[in-house]
Design goal:
Blueprint lengths: L2 H10 L4 E4 L17 H13 L5 E5 L1 H4 L2 H15 L5 E7 L3 H14 L4 E4 L5 H8 L5 E7 L19 H12 L5 E5 L4 H6 L1 H4 L4 E3 L9 H10 L5 E5 L1 H4 L7 H16 L1
Parallel strand pairs: 1-2, 1-8, 2-3, 3-4, 4-5, 5-6, 6-7, 7-8
Helix pairs in contact: 2-4, 2-12, 5-6
The protein binds orotidine-5'-monophosphate.
Orotidine-5'-monophosphate (OMP) binds next to strand 8 and helix 11.
Length: about 260
Amino acid sequence: MNSKDKFFVKIKDGKHICVGLDSDIKKIPKFLLKYPDPVYEFNKIIIDSTLDTAGAYKFNFAFYESNGIQGLTSLKKSIGYIGNNNFIIADAKRGDIGNTSRMYALSIFEFFKADASTINPYMGFDSLEPFLSFTEKINFILVLTSNPGSNDFQKLKTNNGLFLYQEILNKINSWNKEKNCGIVFGATQLEEIANNMDRLNNIPLLIPGIGAQGGDLQSLIKLLKQNNYRNFLINSSRGIIYKDSTELFGEAAREELLKLNNVIT
Ligand code: OMP
């Protein structure tokens, strides 16, 4: 099954929650520190506990890169552990001159074998093109992010009277020839999601920012349902993986995921 098919199989199954494996060795339960690769042990237990109900897994590369070679090893092993039938997002928010972006794309898709990337459109089309040339993958392009700093540039008005993030949305619609673009929209930006439904065009949405960042899942789901928008993944990282710090953390993560799934159905 190719990566796009994996996404749509999960969506058809009503699996919309993306488990964010932002696994920080300083935050995982202490009893895991006795293992040679504690982060991998942690991820394995979260994955085993959530695999049947998760829509996707997202690995934010910062949490692995910060641990050097060991971190990259944990990342590679954890991706391998999830297996081929599940949708895996490499969240590294890449984007550089084309020649360099090609190397980033090779790393994410060929070395790590992820199904999807997150990419930053600031440097323009040629910086994204190496990712978009992987036509069977999904590339989630940052449009309007969940953080307070999204006001600094993304909400500046252009000469067309649009916000910069709306210009990006329009570009994505024109770049999406192979239907391998996705959109990152912060859950904290509910009003903007509502106001831009006609620009989203059922393109796969990755929506982070519920829980710790303050995005409200119930209102978000209401909005998506009202608009009959099905192609979405809602990410929760800290809210799922750090629900409990005892040996029962896997079950606690599962319970949280089921709770989120209940809000969606
Ligand atoms: P929690 O706040 O712990 O659920 O983590 C959110 C995750 O989503 C982190 O990995 C962030 O880097 C990522 N993220 C955002 O929080 N906001 C965005 O606008 C975009 C992303 C992302 O691209 O995933």
